[in-house]
Records
---
Amino acid sequence: MKYPAEQDFIQVVLPDDGSFLKIKETLRRIGMGSYKTKELTATCNILQKKGLYYIVHFKEMLLLDGKEPDITPEDNKRRNTIAYLLSEWGLLNIVDPRLVEDRFSNSKEGGFRVIPYKEFKNWTAISLYDIGAANHD
């Protein structure tokens, strides 16, 4: 099994100690969702490994668990776009910006939604991967 940097995960640097939790909460509000059902499936996670931080697609986390998910080019572009947005919002710095050059021009093109914090209480959050959970079947 390869480590995240070898998988071309998006390595990031956090600007301060409170950034990890801000990013984790923000990522809960970014994903595939429906305004009709008010359900949102988170697309990405923030991974801390050996003191380094990465923005990863949930399918990449399954890969680390030894599963064989079907990771599409669109999944990678979606992850790249989300990492780029987090950087634009000042929540993190991307170590190698070239890794996010292949991205969608916006969330609409990428097919994902960004739910504002104030509205998120009206949504049902769905996570297809919870870091630290014992079993990811």
---
Amino acid sequence: MSRPHAWVELRAWALMAVPMGMLSGGVTGVLVNTVYADVISTWALGLAVAVVTGAGPLANLFSVLWSHWSQGRDKIALLTRMQAAYGLCIAVCADAPLNSLGLLVLVGGLLGAQILWCGIITVRGSVWRANYSRGARTLFAARNQIFVSVCVSLTGATAGLMLDIKLETFRWLFIVASLFAFGSLSMLRRVKVRRQRQLLNAEQQLANGQTFRPREFLAILREDALFRTYMIWMMVFGSGNLMTTALLILVMTNHLNMPGLSQVMITAAVPTLLMAFTTPFWGRVLASRHVIAFRAINSRVFVGAMLAFFSGATLAFPPLLWLGAVLLGMAMGGGLLGWNLGHNDFASQARVTEYLGLHVTLTGIRGLLAPLIGVGLYSVLERAQPGAGVWALALPLILTSSGSLGFNWLKRNVALRESASLD
């Protein structure tokens, strides 16, 4: 039964590429910063941009809760309900008025949609594990990722172009995105989960009497020194990456006067497109080495992207921003792989889920704090000296460079330890 259902699922998730494109951080950040520029104070607008650009990573805080809540529940019924709520959140954004209350409605709708999307992909993982073998699942996910990335990139570019033509078109963009979400829902209802009764019984037995205990995460950090150090450098490195989008949007709007289309292309469309086509290369790199060694290589491309962004902003030379977007997309193709698979190089088979849950939770914390810290620094510099906000991009450059140096130090440290053990 896998083959016909694979085609149904592929079409369903392909339709979701349009709302995913509309909700990507680069698109929503540019939209909020453009639509509400004349009706909201600069400080409040910067805060809103920080929240919406970090909403995707921030939603990861709920992943473990979604996983625990879905245990023993009908998977397709859960997916359809969550997608219905997801579509409604997007539709609400279309009716947001152009005032302070409207900004709260828009930010709330976007954040709610991202949290629901986190639940959708969490439950989707259970469906894929049940319906497809490991090899078929990998092939299916790869094809889906490439197609979705292209559609997300095109959606983002279209949104940027429409905003340049007329600001009020953002309402129609959200309406179309919600219609695609409901169209995906109607297809998803036709999917069946193989041996679902046995799966639900097994989950109920496993979850019986168990509760979500955050202290288990602290135990992992306390007991596994290598993973703890890796997570520390991931926090430093990842924070630099996650604060960059909001800062770029503010700089491109307030200092470089770049059109919305260019902003969306640099922060969302170009990186997403290149990410899809560089993933196979990074997959071969990761397959042949430990994730620490992989991060030591991959992080250097991120540093190159941050350096290009910083140089383009401070020199007021937009071509360097486009170079940064290309490098960022190339780096993200590997960064996504490392994020999804890296914990497997530390955890035993029995503790894979716990390690993944810890990594996802820490990513959510970064998504909450990093954009706010970046925008806060931008605001402080602007108040001290108008025009100095561009120098806030030095912070993600410093953090990303420090994280890269940390990965390379950790790689050498592990190599020396292994060499000593062999001696």
---
Amino acid sequence: MRTVGVAQLLAVCAGLLFTQALLFGAEQSTPSAPESPSPPFRFQAKVKGVLVPTLVLDRHGQAIGGLQSRDFQIFDNGKKQVITGFTVQTRLGAGTTSTAATPGIETSAQFSRGTPVEDSRVSRRYIALLFDDLHLSGSNLVQVQKAAKQMLAKSLNSADLAAVLSTSGRVNTGFTHDQAKLQQGIANLRQVRPYSHPLSECPDIDHYEAYLILQVHDPQALHVVATGGARCPGFLNGPKDFNEGVAKAAAEWEMPRGEQATYFTLEVIRQIVRQMGNLAGQRTLILISPGFIALTPTAANLRSRVIDTAAQANVTISALDARGLYTEMEDENKRLESQVLNQFMREDNLAFGAVMSQLTSSTGGTYYHDANDFEGGLASLFVPPEYLYLLQFSPNGTKQDGTFHVLKVKVNFKGAKVHARPGYFAGEPRQSKSK
């Protein structure tokens, strides 16, 4: 297992942002010069227009096409908004046009940083496979490596270009059709931990558990970690107070490093998505990760900015949960203890999948989870939705006070299920105080 310190992690992040042009390899004929990146982890969120990618599914889970701007309603904190921008993005082969703009309403060319959607109906697809090696465990990584190798050998069409990337920046093949290069990129993936634990392998505490112990003061979380939980059963035989003291010390160590890894991962995703906006073709980013959590307002704001960038760049984000199918533990001798632990682990799993679920549902992508067919899951993520609607509104009069605004999208289609971004931050987010 490789380990790097926090200072090294930030240095790697800065280096990665300056070298994202490597995404556009020799096979990209006219690469655009990369923009000068901002210093890592400094965020600005001045809201002028809010972009809302919206996927509308029927009762059978199929994307619905043919809708117009008049079929949609957007509510910002319960207040109905005027839709000022409306575009329909269509998958190749799904229709006769790649976009449809409503007369008198802003078109996608006005809020696309890269190639306008109107010009994007070409045969080439760009698929970026982003392996989250900062969060993947060794066993998870081995499984998804095997699946990705087999899937790429079968699913890459002659006109497609793919890239194998890692969140640490250690692997970056650039976009290519060269199977040997892609396969070697997958083989080069390694688990990278952003820090080494100063205590021992136990207690094996994660970011969410640390948050519950330090911020929520959850006694159940403290009990689970202090007794070792599912990962380190009976790691200490000392008094209860001593065990809990060790658990709190582990939480103090884990919390800031977990936050840093989250910021880093989201910023890497945003920068890759931003660069993909320069490509002329259909663009999909597939995140392969066991999940991570955005607990602070700053992290939640960055997640919102990733969604904004994906909308501007016309990139669909899909994700595969590398943890696979969750199975509960059974211990007839400790039935009550097992029930408590299983409930806690279910909540833990949901927390770690929340960011991936939000990124995918907010950009028209698919979240593959709670299943062990990683090869089939990755193959299904290669296919973007047939129809994706990009809505825009201007929140006039909204105070830039850092508050989170809840968005609700309604559509005039009976039985339809709507996937859209849950909200946005108006200005810099407020920092919550620790309890």
